[in-house]
Design brief:
Blueprint lengths: L3 E7 L12 H11 L3 E5 L14 H7 L2 E3 L15 E5 L3 E9 L7 E9 L2 E9 L4 H15 L7 E6 L9 H6 L3 E2 L16 E5 L4 E7 L5 H4 L5 E6 L1
Parallel strand pairs: 1-2, 7-8
Antiparallel strand pairs: 1-12, 2-4, 3-4, 5-6, 6-7, 8-10, 9-10, 11-12
Length: 231
């Protein structure tokens, strides 16, 4: 199998560090990363009908990606802001939303994706600001991911965990390995590893990092992270 490149990106509803909403700038960053599968957080607007932060026509015309169809909210791209993008030629199999225990609305997404004849499973998530609720949410994701352990699995998202190896990080670490991508928040001066990519033992990590470009430093308050795997 050829390697597969994944990424996770909190796009902050397409509002950049200059406080301007600019979805075209987010798409520029996504094209720079050139990943096969991307987990987005804050992919929908916060109020009203929670429409997609990246309009569907823009996504289709300015990128090689399509969203995993979640069929939950008509105008939204994601579920509580969580969305998964895949290359247009990818085959999307089973996909679902996860209802997470929460103090404020939180969720996660899952998709089984086939690329170049290989099927993998991906989870995208944005966990709570509260450490107690983060651990409960991590337990729910770990349980959901463990239902079909035979499939190569990657978990990605903004875990909102500031500690180095405690809390939900320790919970995930009992089941998955972390790609050491690096610090991704704040985009202008990264000091924290809030964004994480985790993988099961069936995948070999080839490389990983933080995508720190001029466009990325402006497009959101988070920098995107990426990892490359081979099954």
């Amino acid at each position: 199998m050829k390697s597969i490149r994944v990424a996770s990106y909190n796009i902050r509803k397409a509002i950049g560090t200059d406080r301007r909403r600019n979805p075209e700038r987010v798409l520029e960053v996504l094209n720079e990363i050139d990943a096969d599968v991307i987990a987005l957080q804050e992919a929908d607007r916060r109020f009203g009908v929670r429409s997609a932060a990246i309009p569907p026509l823009l996504l289709d015309s300015l990128s090689p990606y399509k969203p995993v169809p979640l069929n939950v909210q008509v105008d939204s791209m994601g579920w509580h802001g969580n969305a998964i993008l895949v290359r247009k030629e990818a085959e999307i199999g089973a996909h679902d939303v996860l209802h997470l225990p929460c103090l404020e609305p939180r969720g996660a997404t899952m998709a089984e994706v086939t690329l170049a004849g290989k099927t993998m499973r991906f989870f995208g998530m944005h966990l709570d600001l509260s450490g107690l609720w983060r651990r409960r949410q991590a337990a729910a994701v770990i349980h959901a991911a463990g239902v079909r352990e035979t499939m190569p699995t990657v978990l990605m998202g903004d875990l909102n965990e500031w500690s180095a190896n405690r809390g939900c990080l320790a919970d995930f670490a009992r089941h998955y390995s972390f790609a050491p991508c690096g610090r991704s928040f704040h985009a202008r001066r990264p000091v924290a590893q809030l964004d994480r990519i985790m993988h099961c033992g069936q995948l070999k990590l080839l490389d990983c990092g933080v995508h720190d470009s001029a466009a990325a430093r402006k497009a959101s308050d988070h920098l995107p992270i990426w990892a490359e795997f081979r099954a």
